[in-house]
């Protein structure tokens, strides 16, 4: 692990993960670097990742989607925005004018269908199928990127298990029916620049296990340091920004930090980013390593609670959702 003189976040070299048989020492060294980064700022840059996609390939997927005509994007918009559409959780969301979240997005989940554990009357079905516009030419690419990011995240999860003193397969149950989300984001240019629109992504923590973020060259990402100062996390060529989500922070007994981050507007410029939120299955019971016999929390419930605070899901009312309470109730093995 190294820290560039101009960067406040560590760079972690993942070269050994591209090898079919990485040495135990190499894996232990990455595990240690991740542990140090996640126990302090909660953020790091990953370099020499095993992805087959270049930075340009990834942003092509996003540009192609956001250059579709508005009507085409609306055809896959979530029900919250286009009431006649059936998709509630996957799909397109438009930019919310007048908020600190001036971004439009397109979200996809796994290609394989997930067990339908939500009440069909629920306002948000977290395990619904993806929706695609026939005019979007990059569906195969987006599905392939999803699969590679899921694979990389799974490897990182094993390394986090080791960092917590557990065996490499300790968290493997999280991968059953994992409902990770690949999100293509476009922050439209603010013209004319407005002093009121200082932020285009409001300060927040992510909700899942970890997030792998590709950002373009525009800059603007900021991370709250341990001394409560916003530090820039600019684009580093060829890197992925990684950070811990609330869930993993809880699982680690607070050892790993879910750090606040935000995006500062770049006057007159548009920006693209592609976060991948690595998540367990909705029916996964998640427990802290410090309380392995405890009741734990059902991941699907954790997400709905978190969603009620997101601008894209303003109408989530967790109290009114027919949310399952126990694993038995939703009929899924933990
Ligand atoms: O666009 C970015 O760089 C960050 C996006 C983000 O933090 C998120 O979508 O959770
Ligand atoms: Fe985030």
UniProtKB/TrEMBL annotation:
Protein name, UniProt field: Fe2OG dioxygenase domain-containing protein
Fe2OG dioxygenase domain sequence ranges: 177-280
InterPro entries: DIOX_N (IPR026992), IPNS-like_FE2OG_OXY (IPR044861), IPNS-like_sf (IPR027443), Iron_ascorbate_oxido_reductase (IPR050231), Oxoglu/Fe-dep_dioxygenase_dom (IPR005123)
Recorded family membership: Belongs to the iron/ascorbate-dependent oxidoreductase family.
Keyword RNA-binding: no
Molecular function in Gene Ontology: metal ion binding; oxidoreductase activity
Example GO BP: small molecule biosynthetic process
Keyword list, A-Z: Iron, Metal-binding, Oxidoreductase
A Pfam entry, by short name: DIOX_N
Keyword Chaperone among UniProt keywords: no
Domain of life: Eukaryota
Source organism per UniProt: Lepraria neglecta
